Amino acid sequence: MKIEKIVVGMLRANCYLLVDGGEAAVIDPGDEPQKIIDAVEKSGAKLKFIANTHRHFDHIGANAAVAEKFGVEVLANLNDGDILAIGESKLKVVKTSGHTPDGVCFFGDGFVVSGDTLFEDGIGRTDLEGGSDGQMAASLKKLDALIPDSAIVHPGHGNAFIYKKGISLKYLQWT
Ligand SMILES: [Zn+2]
Questions:
Q1: Ligand 1: distance of its center to the CA of 156 in Å?
Q2: Cα(164) to centroid of ligand 1, in Å?
């Protein structure tokens, strides 16, 4: 799976273009649709779907424009354990509420797209509408159990980083 980061919008949200076997998916097209459309076209892959880690405006702002351009669906109401196929690769949906009630992470082979749940040096805010300290704590524990050591985490803002068991647990004291 090839993963391209496209930084979009005033809040510099990370949109990800995932490409495998001639197919592509866009995660979190937050803004600047043309930039995302150009990246999809440049990849030469067929866009299969759009999905979001959560529904804050900086992650969904260009959903409609990109969906319309390529005639694809924006996947909604994802459930824990859902499997999404891109080419020969699979993405697994893992529910991680806390930053928002509907938040998810996407697990691929050796990587995780973590949205605003887990960043390189912190975790997502829980003081916005629908946020929950208790749910965030549960999600951080769940992620630590599920993310393999040395997996690459691609967050919703900022830099990708390499996961080490226990990283997410150190934030529990803040919740
Ligand atoms: Zn957010």
A1: 8
A2: 23
